[in-house]
Here is the input.
Amino acid sequence: MNKPILKSDPVALGAADFFARSKAKLGFDVPAGLYDPNIIPASGDPGTDKMLEIVAREQPVRPAAVLIAVVDHPEPTILLTQRSAHLNDHAGQIAFPGGKIDATDSSPLDAALREAEEEVGLSRDFVEPIGYLDLYGTAFGFRILPTVARVRPGFSLTINQSEVDDAFEVPLSFLMNPVNHQVHSKEFRGMERFYYAMPFAERYIWGATAGMLRVLYERIYSS
Here is the structure.
């Protein structure tokens, strides 16, 4: 099922404006819900919220962190990956660099930077963290805390083929245009829940990745 997004307007995008808005609206306070199963991340969709309540009762919370790497080109882009086809979870899907938070990580930020280095070889030297986005819950029990960061151009990537098949950039202007935010639905235990999709050329960006991009749009440009 596809339907248009209501009460959303295209935004005028530029790197300076995006980073200024992000710095003004984001910070590094870690939400308690990242680790507390009794706190359910709000999704704005009643079906998804109910699903997250059920998942929290049945599965242990799995804290995770991702890096929303905004590359500071004159026309800014976001760095995304395509997960390896042989993985047990989310094989072949489009994702942000990231993964579960290890006990050795000093913070969710540290986990996101570590995973970006491990997956695609993105050096921390090119990354300027700006702040955390809202906590995002998934049907697999993950509580994902995204870090928004400015990435200086000029980096080189080394793809870890055991985790990632490819890395690529998508224009920020495309991802932050609500015209490109499709809404699909599927059934979960008799309940209809909705999720976002943002197809770009041959790349099908959907699920949690598209959901977090929508949250980025709402947080930076709609709030």
Observations:
- The radius of gyration is 17 Å.
- The chain is about 25% helix and 30% strand.
